[in-house]
Amino acid sequence: MLPAGARLTRRDEFASTIRHGRRAGRSRLVVHLDMASTIDPASQAPPRAGFVVSKAVGNAVVRHRVTRRLRHLVAARLGTLPTGSSLVVRALPPAAAATSAELGADLDSALRSASKKLRGREPAR
């Protein structure tokens, strides 16, 4: 379970992460990773995560199952994300039939790729 302070909850937080973050896609999911631009670099905000699971993935039962699996996987990896970062994980329709191990492998691969892209980016806000 993700602690309340580690969750993205507002629409503008999701939109900002998706718009300004670095994207990495895999067959079952897409991740968007962004570093918050803070005026005070001394503020050490914890990394935060949010999930997007649309109706294309399946009915409500399937969507909630996929979200629970992704939440569990991200909670275990949240400490590896840079301080002040925000992460949006978007599930694709093949995620409905995937095992937790397959989702975890896709998540790890996508996070590595997005982190690499993020490190190569100049802070431009």
TrEMBL record:
Class in the EC hierarchy, top level: hydrolase
Superkingdom per UniProt: Bacteria
Coiled coil ranges: none
Keyword entries, A-Z: Endonuclease, Hydrolase, Nuclease, RNA-binding, tRNA processing
Catalytic reaction annotation: Endonucleolytic cleavage of RNA, removing 5'-extranucleotides from tRNA precursor
Record-listed E.C. numbers: 3.1.26.5
Function according to Swiss-Prot or TrEMBL: RNaseP catalyzes the removal of the 5'-leader sequence from pre-tRNA to produce the mature 5'-terminus. It can also cleave other RNA substrates such as 4.5S RNA. The protein component plays an auxiliary but essential role in vivo by binding to the 5'-leader sequence and broadening the substrate specificity of the ribozyme.
Subunit structure: Consists of a catalytic RNA component (M1 or rnpB) and a protein subunit.
PANTHER family the UniProt entry points to: RIBONUCLEASE P PROTEIN COMPONENT (PTHR33992)
Protein family (similarity comment): Belongs to the RnpA family.
NCBIfam families, per the entry: rnpA
Name of the protein this chain belongs to: Ribonuclease P protein component
Species annotation: Pseudonocardia yuanmonensis
